[in-house]
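Quick question: what would this complex look like in 3D?
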Amino acid sequence: MLRMTDELTGSASRLADPGAFPDRMSRARLSAVVAELAADQYSGRRVGTPGGTAAARWLADHLRDLGAAVTRDPVPATTITHLSATPTLVWTAAGETTTGVHRRDFSEHLASADTPDPITAEVATAGQNTAGRWQFVPTYTAAIAADAHRAGAVGLILPRDTDEAGWMPKMITAPPVSPLPVLSLRPDIHRHISATGSGTVTASVPLHTVEAVGTNVHGTFRRPAAGAANILLAAHFDGVGDDPQVRLPAACDNASGIAVVIEAARLLHHLLPPSIGLAVALLDGEEAGAVGSAHHARQVSADTVVINIDGAASLTGAAAVEAGGPAHQLLAALDQAGAATGIPLVAGPMPSDNRRYAAAGLASVGIGMGLPGYQTPAETVDRVEISTLVEATWLTVATVRILTASIELTSV
Amino acid sequence: MSNEISTTKQGGFVGDPAEAFTPPTGGGCCGSPVTTTTSMNATAPCCGTAGAAAAAGACCESTAKAEAVAAGTGCCG
């Protein structure tokens, strides 16, 4: 069992006591950061867009105002998908014509060929001749697409589930491009048309890939003394970006995590012993394969301890924690902080930037406390619970205080 | 705001904190356990199976993702 059982245990409650913090945790500051990043002018903060760049600029200014030494570091280009217009889908089956609603009834498939002009053709279901038709298939693979292309199909349509609110979440990572347009359709509609075995589809998929260059924002509050601990608080600020006509504010994923990291750093700056290093990494490109943290992890000194927050919007049950690298002492501190703050923790997958730091050999944990509306238009500011922001900040501050106290004890 | 934070919940890890090095995969995202040497595989599915992710046209199948998100475990980028 990995538990702290030494003399530190008794002082964890004191170290986690917000009443002893010289600065007060600010609900107003937490919610203001979320509201700012979710605002219209940042357009959902997709990597490499004017909105993403503007968000990085605002974050840099904000960190500077809090007393950090700030640098902005370009992230090498990565390939992502881009919708130049809203995809369209109209189908006629059993004599009835229906216009689909993007992200409700259908969505672009990330492998789709760029097809800005609508194509009208009859449908082909299992066993039917596919030449000149939209082919209804149960799944997508590159081999299926190649076969359909050779057989003369005009495009592929496959089923895709929605989330609990009926949305098809947006993704932007770019797989190899299919030779055909590809759309995903709500499973019940897909089944209905497949069962009918006839009808027509008119669809466009104005999707193409673009090269995107992001910007990590780094704020150093204090540098570590020789041999002293160095704490890095990380969160990604990028989102998947707005659709051409619909906002995706990305308030939960991950404006909430950014707000927590900034507020925790502001508090810790006045709480930690002077020898301890403290920095924040506000990362770009997580939604594009965690390219920002992959770039940054190579630059971080080996003795750095990383806490990454991805989602702090709605804690139901326990916070998910994934650890990597030599994080035993960090985990023990987190456990004690959870006990002292009353925040339950559970081992759970956190496939976020923490994995990049772990892969670089750094002690790291990823913490997740909820992402309602994940990567859909429903991810709005009102979905971010202030109580969760407060709990995540409290947990982070307490963990760092307990960890640094335990390191000091160990080194005595 | 305030420092008036209070809680009556039972906090800390449910079980051994070391399980966080190899978090359970059932119902979560990015199924493969993470070790200290595992690097992130951008092509791996975030939730469920690779086939289901491919069928969904996304990095993870949405039902598995919804379960993960509902459980507060987050999801992939």
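Answer marked as accepted. The longest helix of chain A spans residues 386-411.
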